[in-house]
Write a structure and sequence with these properties.
Elements lengths: L1 H15 L6 E4 L14 E4 L2 E4 L17 H19 L1
Antiparallel strand pairs: 1-2, 2-3
């Protein structure tokens, strides 16, 4: 229920900003390309919305080896690359 309310609030906030705030898709060569019709990040006014990440190596496009520890490190590196690209 809590997740549903948060989702509704985000949709309403983004929907209300439709005519007044610009949206900019954020991509980075240092993070894997999005799977499907998604962007790794979207800047809406002063907000930066990040999509979920998995432990993909951006160079090989493959899941990093070494288990959860190495995959978590890669996820954080991928998120950091998107944040850096956004400024």
């Amino acid at each position: 229920m809590k997740h549903l309310l948060i989702t509704i609030a985000v949709v309403l906030l983004v929907g209300c900003a439709h005519g007044t705030v610009q949206r900019k898709a954020i991509t980075s060569d240092d993070a894997p390309a999005a799977l499907g019709p998604y962007s790794p990040g979207v800047q809406v006014g002063e907000f930066l919305l990040l999509s979920g990440q998995i432990g993909l190596n951006p160079e090989s496009g493959k899941l990093v080896e070494g288990g959860i520890k190495e995959q978590t490190k890669q996820v954080l590196d991928n998120l950091g690359a998107v944040l850096k690209e956004a400024g």
